[in-house]
Amino acid sequence: MAANGNPQASLSEILEKVHAIFAEELQLDPSAFSNDDDLSTGLGLDSLAIYSAITEIEDAYQIVLNDSDISGISTISGLAQLVFDRINGFVSSLSSEADTQEREYHRLTDFAESPEYLGLRQRMAETFPEGFNPYFVPHDSLIRDTSVVNGKEVINLGSYNYLGMSGHPETMQAAIDAIRKYGTSASGSRTLAGEKTLYQQLEKAIADWKHTEDAIVCTGGWATNLTFLSSFMHDGDFIVYDALSHNSIAEGVALSRAESKAFPHNDLQTLENILHKVQDKYNKVLIVVEGVYSMDGDIAPIPEFVRLKKAYKCFLMVDEAHSGGVIGDHAGGCDDYFHLDPHDIDIKYGTLSKALGTCGGYIAADKEIVEYLRYFMSGFVFSAGISPPLAAACMKAIEIIRRDNSAATKLHENIRYFVRRCKEEGMNTCLAGESAVVPVLIGSDQDAARLSAELLDEGVFVPPAMYPAVPIGESRLRFTISATHSIEQLEKAVSSLAKLMHEEGFLK
Ligand SMILES: Cc1ncc(COP(=O)(O)O)c(C=O)c1O
What we know:
The protein is of the alpha/beta class.
């Protein structure tokens, strides 16, 4: 019997089993790759496939391999050695392969010659062989149902203005009034010189809307996740997060000093296994999930996560970037949609840049958490406050959303229409259903980028979502629906795409 109660297994037996698990995950003949091939590049495995394989290995040997254990492991041999060491209780050799290899350095003075820059150029040439780059397309107008690209009005199906709050006459007026009163900048960190009554009113409005005791607002949505996770979770804590989480969560996890581990998307059983294995360890355990996933458009089973966080004494954080202002009877987000108790979600994260139509991020939570963050969240303390017109426009947007449900009702009518029509045309809409994110699966990066360019020629703007935002080979056109769209505009987009997909053999 090995140290952790596993039956004794030799290194070669473990190697064979780990190899077999990867072969199954890749759906490849086991002889097609070696134990020393690079897992992330040589085998063409995306990180989601790696998470699934690692979950299987953990189940097979009843161990937990945290992010820090596997960082630096690049081969099946390295992974098998890690499993062998772990089940035999050899802590010392848990260090990564990288630590044991002699590192070679190549001093650079010209960044244009660096591998990272040359890699970018090569990827651009491969992905956009026809020259059209779907990134950084300038929109020189308000972005609502339409926008102006190259002087031409197009139907805009790529923005996050879900409820039309950006450009709403009342939010614009609120912003103008705030500029007259406060100017355009906070002109300081709020902790010291930049505080305003307006910001306190905004935070109260967010806390009331999200049914929490308090809320805190930072200047960027991405940065709010990063600074919250790294300031709230410390050495001795543990973060367990969905493998499909947004980059801002993954980066925040990496920046925090807590141990961490990803679980396969929405895999409640694996999450429960992990929580069970760590239940006697760590001071705080934080489960992090999203309300609506930004690349697939699915709504997470939040009540199940609430059940697990209660059973295993954890904190639950939900990123409401795409659910706040979208789902629920009154577009209130996950608690509204699932009729949760206000305390079921401990940390409600949201961005101001999507349904709320401005820019910034918030954490809504119990007053003790928010009080702590006001003094210790570095991205808040050491950064200037949100710009006053944004704060005023956002507060107005919340007021409008709470007093009038008509934009949310129209948004859902539009979503239902668009998803139904895509399905009728035979398109694969991934996990879309009730959220404003409706992806249409295409396949390769090149095909998704080309179709995006062709649709723009037809007067429809939709950006492609490509690797690494989605797994290799699963690139998609990511439509985002707004309450401002008319049914005619949505129909024009679906029929234009269907025509192109038929012509190019994507649809039979
Ligand atoms: C799930 C999720 N969280 C956080 C963010 C960051 O928000 P922002 O774009 O407002 O910085 C995004 C942005 O798209 C997101 O999709």
